[in-house]
Amino acid sequence: MTRQAAPTESLRDRQVRIQVCTILLLSILCAPFLSSADEPAADLQESGRLLVILLDSGRVTIGRNQALLNDASKADKGFTPDVFAAQTIAEFKERTGYDLNNLSEAKVPSMAKPLLERLLEESKKTVASYQTVLNMPGVGYKGLIPATFGTETGTRFQNWSGLYLKQTAPERFLRNPKNKADSFEAAEMQKMADPTFPRDGKHIVTAVAGDGGSVRDLLPLFYEKSCMSCHGTPKGERDITGYPREGGHEGELGGVISVKIDRSRAGAPPMADGVPGRR
Prior knowledge:
The chain is α+β, with helices and mostly antiparallel strands. It is built from nine helices and five strands; from the N terminus they run αααααααβαββαββ.
């Protein structure tokens, strides 16, 4: 019986088979690198989210103690940097679940840990700088309010870290020209001002900058009842700080806390422009 010869593989079939094998091999070898490419961006977004929440936690702490700070009948207020820090740490933990007293065990991006520690330290320095005037009897308004705290602490932190961190406001509520919004912030604030945007203060906007080289996080600040003594009505009447009231309303967007982190800090290459997302 004559044995039949095995069919000969054509040159085209062989080329196709080689190409398929090559693609499969490359996908297996590159999978770890492709999956990790988004990790630095995620770390930047989470780090930015935590930074804006921490700065706002300090603002909230100042606001809650405003009556005490402005009490002209009392000398020593007992509002030391350590007291401020304890209250801020508690507020931050309530909002994020992370304890700043035990960051080494916290499951946060490694790059965020020294940044959060330093931001808290700079926050305490801001409060420390006001101790003399805070404890001065016979004086009501001391100059330390959430807005001044945010501006001064943001500047201190930027000087140390080089990171862009500031609070800004819509044009009609802007009091400090140094805090003027850039084009990205202005555009996002227009969206946040829409009545359909959630007013719970938890919806942080995160986006990749237009050049793909940095990640941005914006925390909206909506006016509460306590804000109306300075930013409410009657419009034009001077508030305790000496500025004319803007005629704002409770629930209206009063500003944002904005952070921008360069992707090079996470060792990541620039990425394509992204569409802002809400968390």
